[in-house]
């Protein structure tokens, strides 16, 4: 891990932002403190100068000169830094200020002047000039060195406190960024392994306390789902191969026998007829798979219109009547009075009904009943039910029968490919219709199956998102 990488992490940038904010706050605090102290010191200085000037102005000429030249009062020694007497032409008479400060006016107001002493550094003086007895001018000044010292002191203490704090914050930033980078690095490694094809690999998600771990948890759940879906696809591939292999193997074995040339003409005809049946089964599997794919990929509902469910059901019942009769099953249709409109594709809905009735007839023993019923649901939608008195579907299998190639163990002896209900559910998804499976009656040995389809209101349905 390089330092450059660490410095580019979000954590480190956040640390930098905090450090800048810290320095900014300290500087602001210093500026505010300084300006307030300065204003206070100015006011105090000006008051002192005025008070002292008023006191000295009451003195006699000789006394004043003496006091100024000897600095004979406490105030003159401690509070006032500069004191002098000048005549009206600004010539020096007594005191330690030898030349008239430039810019000073005798107006009873305090002025600020910069004094340039011979050896020392220049300094700023608050200074006041007032006329006193004997045509003289009293000049009193007080330096602002206090503030300069205060500023120096504050700057020093600020540096002493801020530098270690900033260094500590930066160090924390680097350590935290280093840790974050380490975690991201481990995630990258896991992702690389997943991309290399190790689909069982998962991101280190820990106990999902922080946002990174929660994100990793979500990604892991997504990977679980993807792995499951890929497993399903692989299973479907295997199933297709398996389902095509059996009839094809039979065809091949028969043709082998026919090639040996020992079969009679009648036997040959039987071989051909059975082979055609087997090949038809292969074709029907392939056709059904292509059809499901086609319907699942359909984004648009071209050819959708309002169709009458009663009309379709009547057609289907007519079509399956002879088959039901051969199997000695009573096929009944309880039609709702009046049309039952749904918004959909007539041919696809015929496929749905044909598959449901075909299953019902297949899985019901002779002497049983298959009943078809339609109802308007009272809210603009419609309901279709196909019930039988057959072997039924156990609750734990009701989800699985919708999967491609799934066939219940009980139905192994009945011909079929296990694709019918997949086709039904693909078509119903396209129609936004809900399919439910239940027991048709309270009978343990022969519970029967009840397939219910709820269609949404027949006003045109919005296209599903692409
Ligand atoms: N009416 C029904 N009664 C009992 N089981 C059913 C019924 N319809 C479907 N099944 C079960 O669901 C499985 C899948 O049905 P389907 O997809 O139509 O395939 P197939 O009809 O080719 O077996 C069937 O094999 C059967 O086990
Ligand atoms: Mg079927």
TrEMBL record:
PROSITE patterns: HAMP, HIS_KIN. The keyword Membrane applies. The keyword Membrane applies. It is found in: Membrane. GO terms for molecular function: phosphorelay sensor kinase activity. Keywords: Kinase, Membrane, Phosphoprotein, Transferase, Transmembrane, Transmembrane helix, Two-component regulatory system. Coiled coil: none annotated. Residues 178-231 form the HAMP domain. Its main location: membrane. It catalyses: ATP + protein L-histidine = ADP + protein N-phospho-L-histidine. Residues 239-459 form the Histidine kinase domain. It comes from the Bacteria. GO terms for cellular component: plasma membrane. Its EC number is 2.7.13.3. The chain crosses the membrane at residues 12-34, 158-176. This is histidine kinase. It comes from Gluconacetobacter asukensis.
């Amino acid at each position: 891990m390089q330092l450059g990488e660490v410095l580019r992490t979000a954590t480190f940038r956040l640390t930098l932002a905090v450090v800048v904010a810290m320095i900014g706050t300290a500087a602001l605090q210093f500026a505010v403190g300084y300006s307030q102290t300065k204003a206070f010191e100015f006011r105090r200085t000006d008051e002192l100068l005025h008070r002292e000037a008023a006191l000295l102005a009451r003195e006699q000429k000789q006394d004043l000169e003496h006091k100024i030249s000897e600095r004979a009062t406490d105030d003159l020694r401690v509070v006032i830094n500069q004191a002098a007497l000048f005549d009206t032409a600004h010539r020096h008479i007594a005191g330690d200020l030898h030349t008239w400060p430039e810019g000073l006016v005798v107006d009873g107001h305090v002025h600020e002047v910069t004094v340039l002493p011979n050896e020392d550094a220049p300094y700023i003086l608050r200074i006041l000039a007032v006329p006193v007895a004997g045509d003289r001018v009293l000049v009193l000044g007080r330096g602002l060195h206090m503030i300069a010292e205060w500023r120096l002191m504050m700057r020093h203490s600020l540096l002493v406190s801020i530098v270690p704090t900033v260094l500590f914050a930066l160090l924390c930033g680097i350590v935290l960024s280093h840790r974050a980078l380490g975690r991201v690095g481990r995630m990258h490694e896991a992702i690389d392994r997943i991309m290399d094809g190790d689909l069982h690999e998962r991101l280190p998600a820990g106990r999902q306390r922080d946002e990174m771990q929660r994100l990793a948890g979500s990604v892991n759940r997504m990977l679980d789902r993807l792995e499951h879906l890929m497993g399903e696809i692989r299973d479907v591939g295997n199933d297709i191969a398996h389902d095509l292999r059996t009839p094809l193997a039979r065809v091949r074995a028969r043709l082998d026998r026919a090639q040996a040339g020992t079969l009679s003409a009648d036997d040959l005809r039987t071989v051909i007829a059975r082979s055609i049946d087997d090949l038809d089964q292969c074709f029907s599997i392939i056709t059904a798979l292509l059809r499901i794919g086609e319907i699942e990929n359909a984004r648009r509902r071209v050819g959708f219109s309002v169709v009458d469910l009663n009309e379709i059901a009547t057609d289907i019942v007519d079509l399956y009547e002879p088959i039901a009769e051969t199997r000695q099953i009573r096929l009944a249709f309880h039609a709702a009075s009046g049309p039952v409109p749904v918004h959909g594709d007539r041919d696809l809905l015929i496929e749905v009904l044909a598959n449901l009735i075909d299953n019902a007839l297949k899985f019901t023993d002779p002497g049983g009943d298959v009943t078809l019923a339609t109802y308007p649901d009272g809210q603009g939608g419609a309901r279709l039910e196909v019930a039988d008195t057959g072997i039924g579907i156990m609750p734990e299998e009701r989800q699985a029968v919708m999967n491609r190639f799934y066939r219940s163990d009980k139905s192994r002896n009945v011909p079929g490919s296990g694709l019918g209900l997949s086709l039904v559910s693909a078509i119903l998804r396209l129609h936004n219709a809900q399919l439910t499976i239940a027991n048709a009656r309270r009978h343990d040995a022969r519970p029967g199956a009840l397939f219910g389809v709820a269609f949404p209101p027949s006003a045109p349905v919005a296209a599903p998102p692409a």
